[in-house]
Design goal:
single chain, 149 residues, mainly alpha
Length: 149
Amino acid sequence: MKQPQDFTRMMQDMMAAFPVDARAMQDAFKTSATLGEKVSRVALEAAEKSTEISTKWTKDIIAKLGEMTRVKAEPADYTKAMTDFASGQAEAMAETMAAFAEVAKKVQMETVELMLAAGKDFSEDASAAMKKATTEVTAAAKKVAAAGK
């Protein structure tokens, strides 16, 4: 019977014929991991700042509700308290939304900067890996050509 072709051996031989720069792979992984760390830091800082804004807003609402629910001397004072509360909340909401917008803008700017820097790093890593691979492949081809003569 005919023996089945050993594809495992064939793949190992084929991969051995192509030089692989493990250092380039490590550098690419480190660059990627560093990018992940920086992006995570940006996201966590934004989450922390957003939580601070939300907490402040909630505390302000509770404080103003306390003012509104106090006993008043005149019935008209209740209307004034509700009006003051509503206008205060409208102002606080505008300030809070502006604060959230500032956080979002900062995250966007930092993310763009990180992506541009990462693109440059990845490009440099890929360029170095390609130069090294080209040199090694050229050397291997010359060696094979010299052996064939």
